[in-house]
Amino acid sequence: MSDLKLWYSSPAVGWGQGLPIGNGRIGAVVMAAPQREVWSMTEVTYWSGREEAVPGPFGGKEALRRMQGLFMAGDYAEGDRLAKQYLQPEKRNYGTHLGLCEIVFSFDSPDRQGEAEKEGERAGNEEARFRRGLDLDRAVAHAESQTGGCTLLREVFASHADDVVAARIWSESPGGVSFTLSAAGGTGPFIVRSVNGDTLEFQAEAREQVHSDGTCGVRAEGGIRVVASGGTLNCRDGRLTVAGADEAWIYFTVSTDYQHAGADLQAQSARSLEQAAAKGYASLRADHIRDYRQEFCKVDVRLGRSEISDLPTDRRIALLQQNHSGDPELFALFLQYGRYLMIAGSRADSPLPLHLQGIWNDGEACRMGWSCDYHLDVNTQMNYYPAEIVNLGESHLPLMRYIEALSRAGRVTARDFYGSAGWVAHVFSNVWGFTAPGWDTSWGLNVTGGLWIAMHLIEHYEYSQDRGFLEGQAYPVLKEAAAFFLDYMTIHPAYGWLVTGPSNSPENSFYPEGHSGENRQLSMGPTMDQVLVRELFEFCLNAAALLNKDEELQVQLGEAIHKLPPLQIGRQGQLQEWLEDYREAQPEHRHLSHLFALYPASRITPEETPELSAAARVTLENRMMQDELEDVEFTAALFGLYFARLHDGERAYRHISHLISGLCLDNLLTYSKAGIAGAESNIFVIDGNFGGTAAIAEMLLQSRAGEIHLLPALPADWSTGSVSGLCAKGKVEVDMDWKDGILTTATLRTFSAGTITVRSGEHRSTLLTEAGGSYTLNSRLEQLQVG
User: Fold this and answer.
1) Is the pLDDT of residue 114 over 70?
2) Rounded to two decimals, what is the model's pTM?
3) What confidence score (pLDDT) does residue 147 get?
4) Per the CB 3.0–4.6 Å rule, which of 132, 217, 238, 755 could disulfide with 143?
């Protein structure tokens, strides 16, 4: 596992070169340089804004039916006017996730601070003098520098086991550790005070004036404690100074009042720091590694050897951009980095799921119109695309709880905006229960945003086969979503189909047939809506039958399913994005939502729906041909995922190669380019990391109920390799080896009884499995061993 490292011979001079650590709640991006180190600290519940009612006017069911009638009659202008009147709320104290603070280490003496950057540049010219990295196998960031013949070593980790960030600084020379530590806040109030001669305590409040009025947000209190061996330790004027020590240990923790109003936050943090110091660094580190590796070591992947794997990570990224191949280990590293980021950002007990930037924050998205929040039109969904297949199902659980909370808040929105039963949420949400449409119908009226994220309940059940989860969480939430759509949808008089609307196809626009002038966003029955509703209704129907309940609902769902529109192929041979074969106003658009039927759903497959598969390929090729293609991280990941599902390994490889080499910062975190969707600069968005991880996994393994496909989209660059621990639907773990592009052996470990069809190349085999069984197959999928 020694190849599972990101490392660099040059200093981190900014956030995009820092290395992320996290414990599922507290995060840090560590920017190390020879004479300076900065931790950009975050806490996942540290949000501005507040819970508040969304003011009307609300038109209810009467206004909804009027709008639907107008759109179905082709009066887009009047329909859009009414939608803006009744379905476009004002932006108020929505809020955003914010960075908490920066912790700054200045090594040697304070007067050296001004020389830090020059020193770092000099160190970068001599690799032996400075090196920093992130060990994915142990989730520890580290740095080593040599100055004046003295070697200084540092390491830091975020412990889930003990809920602290802990660091060690030591030297090969006695008395060689000297530094000053200070802390500064970002937006909002931030107060630091010195306590007990060894601790800095801080108080902060998440306030800003872009997404809220600057008066409301989560409060946080925490502390930083230093323990030194030898030398002296002084704490005054909000700074900790260590001089001439042999070794020093640093402990950080923070508590917030999110959902804990009135809690004694300082007492909580003080208690955590005391416990950490009493336990000691070595024990904290050992328990952290043990806890982390229980999750990380579930999967091992080998995609071939790389001659350049010993080079610094930033150099390997640059070479991949030049050569587009020749570094299969970088793809394996990217997959494992994605798994690392999920473990670091989302544990079973995390208070919230991963947001737009995971649990980290570069300060960019939250200072502009985007907000660092939960985008529900692909971004949050993509964050969890790999969770199940890469054997991190427990990391999925915070999202399950968030969806439950969203469904409770969405009942008010369903009632007020649509006069309907059940629950609904739209294009984005926050930690305050926001489920209303966004504040512009052009992009904000994505009526299936909540349903889209709720598809993860289905995903988690299909992989885990957890009947308790189905009965207690998934079915109750999805049943209420079905209640909304049964009440809200209407029959289109021209087709006799049951359709949604007014709604958009995120976040695209079109020119209506026979209309001249401006483009439109709203229509009836966008393809994305209809695919999601069909997935919902069919799952609820099957779940109700399995659980032997809600017979009347089963009848309603069965009747409704027969009235839903089919997937359609347009005049250009493309998969139609809307109910009508509209002309795209932005053929270069970054969103490809209607291909949900291809991935993550399995309604389009090359074997069973070849015509629809060909249409999906035409859609992808039409986008790729556009000179002005909106080239962003999630689009590159989607291209990789879609071509993997079309069993085109070379195309999938090309797009994931572009994602890694062209849309990653030096720290291998993905970003959205400046100028797209209003981005004022390159903005870190973590969905590309997770989407790319999912795509690599899907190139190796695909599954749906009762079927597992081995090596469905293997590119030539990964012709020989192995993988263990990937998961398939039906609660199955898969190990396999391959050589020269051909499967050699595969072992399936089954945790529930059933019948599984296994495919690889031209071979196909059917297994009758038992819970706790192990089945080894050869290259022809003949069974070699039963255990």
Assistant:
1) no
2) 0.96
3) 76
4) 132
